[in-house]
Amino acid sequence: MNHILKLRLTIVFVALFSLLTAGSFAQTVRDSLQKVLQQPGLTPEEQVMTRIRMGRALVDGSRKDAIASTQTALQMSRTLKDRKYEALAHSALVSLEYTAEDTALASHHLDSAFLFARESGDQLTLASVWYRKGWLENRTGKPHEAVKSFQESLKLGKGLPGNIYETNVYYNLASIYADWNDTETQYRYAKACLASALTRSDPDDICNGYQAMATSFEYQFNGDNSKRELLDSALYYNRRAIAIYEANAPSISFHSMVALLALNTANLYDQYFPRTYRDSAQHYLDIALKIGKETDQQEVVASCYGMMSTFASNDGNYNRASDLLLAGLIALKTYPAPDNRLMAHLMEALSEVAEKKGDLPKALEYAREYSKYYAKAFDVDRMAIAKKLEAQYQARQREQELVTLQEKAAFNRKLNIVYIGLIIACLVALLYLFRSYHFRLQSTIQQQKLLEKEKQDGVLQIRLKEEEALRLQLEKQEAELQARLQAEEAARLQAEQQLIQTQKEQLQKDLLAGTLQVEQKNELLESLQEKLKEKAVQPDLAKQITRMIETHKRMDKNFETTRTEFENIHPEFFRKLQEKAGNSLTKLDLKHCSYISIGLSTKEIASHLGVAPKSILMSRYRIKQKLGLGKEEGLDAYLMAWRENNPLTEDAAG
């Protein structure tokens, strides 16, 4: 009976942490998934995820069907653009292949899951694959590596919506620290597991959270049995988990977990409470046995019958104890592959009960059966150990290959660094050579430019000297020409002065002749005036003649006042007027223009010329036409302006 109890305790404290992802789904869950797959319009992505869940639902009934469903999901995921679905399918196959005792294939699927998760770039998918890696490491005897993987999963999935793996990560971390007897850290992760489960409101996760808390308090109580409140807390959380199951049984996926919880609760009542609590223990044993049979859990069924047999044996009812153990054997034999180790433990318990009853032949028979089943179990264990060792060897070989590859990669990186260094050195050398050649080329070009510039400067200097000589020659020629022009100008001025002098002398002669004529005329007029006084003449005629004589005297006086002005008239004045008039001016016209230019009025000109003023006006009109003057232009103003613009007195004076 002690062997059965030992087996039961092992199942309760270890299997509770190992069945989270390998447990069976309820029939209702499988049925609901089948209905989902039959729905029209289901997207390829939804079909993949549903088939992955179906694989998990079929694992307890038929691992072959579970793997086939997940393989179908994997094939469908390869047609999808998003690689995360292929990563999730490979991740699901990790646990399925491991439960099928193919650790090498499980590791292969894990590597593929990592590859496609990184390709997808989805952080939540990568977090789930890291969780699966920790799960596999924990079950292959690598708890320290598993903790690192779980921590990486928590870091990647922190704060991401839809992180359904967070509760499972905390659950597994609590189990690892429970194995390490670190109850403080175990409690911390169990508390985090329950808190995470309550935020998601998923019945499966909440059951797991309560179970983790119950186990944590139970481990703490095992360390100090004086703290009964720890035992009460363990029972409280176990009852809470079972109550969640009973309230949500149709939607609970992991019924096997509840069977273990019920078995563990019954054990606590049996171990730490008096016999009066036997009914409570039996109540939870009935729950565990019922669920164990429904979920095909040989360990739970064997443990339940073993515990009930212990109750009967302690009461002295050996026949009842023997019947319960035989019922356990019958139940195990109904399975396609009954567990030889469990069969051996039941045979050993039957042998002990038969010995207590005094039926030694039966005790010997059961002992022989025990040896037979134990030998089979030993062979199975040996094969399992061999497979495990082979898997570990392959894992170590892969790790060694990985280390070798990493070392090779590191060596290649270093070699690449050396190559890069050599390339950089070559580039620097080439750059130096190029710069040196460039500098030499620039220096040569600069020297050529300097020589060319010096040559050009020499040519320019020669040209400048030639131009300077030419300039000096031109200046000399210009000076000679200037001297010649000055000489010619001086000769011209001299000729003009001589001409002016000649004209002036001629004018003075003309004026002298005119003066003599005036004096002669005056003498004649005075003589005539005296004769008129001597002889009697009509008064009117005398007055008229006298008036005419006075007028001539006055004109002579005016002639004296203007004589100096006429002396200064330049002969060019008349020439230019002729040019202006096209040589159409008569001598009388020129004389008329002379009188106008010196400021005589029309009446005075008429008196000088001895004509009527009307004739002067007609003469002025003809002169204006000959000079081309307009109606608005005055002849007096024009001739005076002409005289000012063509100075006469300066040349005459010169």
From TrEMBL:
Residues 1-26 form the signal peptide. Residues 462-538 form a coiled coil. GO terms for molecular function: DNA binding. Residues 599-626 form the HTH luxR-type domain. The keyword Membrane applies. InterPro entries: Sig_transdc_resp-reg_C-effctor (IPR016032), TPR-like_helical_dom_sf (IPR011990), TPR_rpt (IPR019734), Tscrpt_reg_LuxR_C (IPR000792), WH-like_DNA-bd_sf (IPR036388). It comes from the Bacteria. The chain crosses the membrane at residues 417-434. Keywords: Coiled coil, Membrane, Signal, Transmembrane, Transmembrane helix. GO terms for biological process: regulation of DNA-templated transcription. SUPFAM superfamilies: C-terminal effector domain of the bipartite response regulators, TPR-like. This is HTH luxR-type domain-containing protein. It comes from Chitinophaga varians.
